[in-house]
Amino acid sequence: MTGEAPVISGTSVVKLARGVRLRADAVRGQTVLLAPERAMALDDIAVRIVEALDGRRSLDRIAGDFAAEFGAPVEQIASDVQSFAHELAIRRMLEIVE
Prior knowledge:
The chain has 98 residues and is an alpha+beta fold.
């Protein structure tokens, strides 16, 4: 089920919604995001983003940390992080802390 997501911006501080868990699926050899009655397969980049959604740092801060770690343009990383967070919010897998 999808619906309207709250507005997600670089200043948003978010975390996984209650009941949503990151789990390794040994049978399929991938990591999945599990929520009640639904799952989402994640690639390595998505896993790193989900692990960073700690409810303490803004999306801009997370993007800045990734940019420093990977030597990539912060603008591109920020766009990718916000887009992915928006998708998780639409799927009701994310909640906004601030």
